[in-house]
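Practice problem: Class I SAM-dependent methyltransferase
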Amino acid sequence: MVELDSLPTTRDAYDAVATRYAQNFTDTLRDRPLERALLAAFAESVRAGGDGEVADLGCGPGHITAHLRQLGLRAFGVDASPAMIGLAREANPELRFEVGSMAALDIADGSLGGVLSRSSIIHIPPQDLPTVIAEFARVLAPGGHLLISCFATDDVAIPTQSFDHSVVTAYRWSPDRLAELLRDVGVSEIARVLCEPQPTYKRQFRELQLLAAKN
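Answer key — structure tokens:
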């Protein structure tokens, strides 16, 4: 595994909270109908494009990987945290989960029909995000689809903003900056959705969902 300088800190921090994280977040889709709809649209796009395998990158305890499988995708999960992967395998023994780095995936070039990055780029430092985005593009087949979710900056003109996260330092991203990084590696934006935070949410940040496809 090729490691970003930030990876050991992030990995160790998530190893330490893996069990609590799984208990608190494995049912997060239940009260998010829009996010379920976006995942369904992503799944339909992948199937229409040839129904290739889908990698859930930064899969955590595997609940979203399992949801993708329920949507009919041949999904597997990758996460840097061995503790998270252990929980994912325990909860979903029928699915494939691997320990890996988003900056150096053990996946062949152009082999995937889809990549899901659900809040997994939030801990990537700004200087390293182009490397990770390029890796997403490398493993996607032409026509393959990518769905990225993350917190958005307050002003789209601000490329990134750091914020205190309960686990480890995290970052918000400008939707325009993220789309630019994708264009640089041959991945074109299809749609973006910016969701305003609900009053009950812990973090009062807008959430970005960006759907794109490899040229």
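Discussion: The chain has a mean pLDDT of 94. Students who identified this feature from the tokens alone can consider the problem solved.
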